[in-house]
Amino acid sequence: MxxxxxxxxxxxxxxxxxxxxxxxxxxxxxxxxxxxxxVSVARAESPDLVLMDMLLPRMDGYEATRLLKKDPGPxxxxxxxTAYSMKGDREAILQAGCDGYISKxxxxxxxxxxxxxxxx
Length: 120
Description:
Elements: E1 4-8, H1 12-24, E2 28-32, H2 35-45, E3 49-52, H3 61-70, E4 77-82, H4 89-95, E5 100-103, H5 111-116
Parallel strand pairs: 1-2, 1-3, 3-4, 4-5
């Protein structure tokens, strides 16, 4: 099932890989490289899913997620895509409103199926 997926990632190499894998699987990909752009793109384009890096310039992924969960609303799925692995990071990500968590570095062979598990 093809979906519209917003990737929020400021690292060009990570962005390229994630975008390539999702597009290769037939998904439409939208891109934002900071938290402010993520909120704008999500509000304008209504993606099916947002993959949110948490460490971003201008506005971090925590704040962007909180804003997205208020408007367009809690039904928007936001999944953290981040390298954070310290104790308590997963809990903080979920408290910010993320619906799940995918660790970086990603496994290219499993990544698309991990993402698709969050799609309706």
